Amino acid sequence: MRIVADENIPLLEPFFADIGEIRRVNGRQMTADDVRDADLLLVRSVTPVNEALLAGSRVRFVGTATIGTDHIDRVWLDGAGIRFSAAPGCNANSVVEYVVSTLSLYAERRGLTDWTDLSVGIVGAGNVGGRLGDTLTRLGFTVRLCDPPRAAREPDRAASFVALEDVLACDVVTLHTPLVRDGDHPTLKLLDAKALDGLHGGQLLINAGRGEVIDGEALGQRLAAPNPPLVALDVWEQEPRICPALVEQVWQATPHIAGYSLEGKVQGTEMIYQAACRFLGLPVRKQAGQFLPEPALSKLCFTGSADAPGALWTALRACYDPRQDDARLRRAMAGDTPDARGLAFDRLRKHYPVRREWSSVKIQLKGSSRALQDDFRALGFKLKT
Fold it and tell me: Are residues 82 and 22 in the same domain?
């Protein structure tokens, strides 16, 4: 059996070597010739999977090691009798950690002694947005959720959701929707010029969902106008050839790595491995935990003099500080041509440093308050007793 896979999917050999012969391919440059003789195709979000790629091939199973599926023509796959599986929720924790770390930096910038004074509006309450909302609520933030498709599907929970206008009035607005181009609830350019004009300098806009959910041209114009909001972008229009001028305008710029924790990436591989085993009628023998190495940072200790949120912010940034990714992306934008910048963008993702999730770190608290303990638990850290 032949398996063609995006070269950036981690732990391909440990999970799939027993199933078949693996051929690694650059996901963004994958062609029909690359997959013609494949039985299984494993991709990430950079590979459009459709008739143009698969017509005439012998592929019978496609797995994407990502939560998003807008790069997959599922209607065509169904019609061609090709089984499909994604990895929903695999990197949800990682994206939540990215957003919460960004929130801590923003609260510090604003000089807040209590970051829960910020109201947070979440657009898209799926695996990522829903988990983010739960985490922030446990921490004590005021959270508003906007998700029209869920509100329509779950009328008994209609009171849990608000209109987009209500979310856009929050101190922080964070986007976690899939890219939907048509239908009753499209998200393509959901934040257009009108929506962006309503944002002001006392707000932070975060996009860690899909770049095209924001109208990039309109965003650039808004950021050049008086009293613009601060903006943190992890996803961009026209990746990997993103707009260098927009990188200069935003407050925080990162190269589509919010979900790039080691745990998130390995869980994505594990989920499509499990799906492939079910499709092939094979036993599931391997789990992600078998392959995770010991973290470089395993324990942090705080004394009774530690205060919240200072202790929380110290722990967050010890594990992951988005400013490092921001600096790397800004340096990468120094290329002279769009192609050079695009290659640099992809290199940042391909050679991304190992980043571990909060659950890999034990927190020891000596004489601390019960509230601080609860906050660390809400964030997913392990408390050392």
Answer: yes
Domain check: are 222 and 158 in the same one? Answer: yes
Express each pLDDT in 248-302 by its tens digit: 999 999 999 999 999 999 999 999 999 999 999 999 999 998 999 999 999 999 9
Q: Give the position of tokens 């990714």.
A: 325
If asked whether residues 182 and 104 sit together in one domain, one would say: yes
Sequence length of the chain is 385
Side-by-side strand order, sheet with 382-383: 299-302, 362-365, 382-383
Instruction: Quote the pTM value.
Output: 0.93
What count of other Cβ atoms lies within 10 Å of the Cβ of residue 307? Answer: 12
Q: Average pLDDT of 20-29?
A: 96
Active site residues: 210, 239, 256
CB 199 within 8 A of CB 232: no
Q: Rounded to whole angstroms, how far apart are CA atoms 106 and 291?
A: 35
Instruction: Give the range of the structural domain holding residue 14, as residue numbers without chain letter.
Output: 2-86+261-290
Residue 233 to residue 174: CA distance in whole angstroms:
10
CA distance 281 to 183: 36
- 106 and 196 in one domain? yes
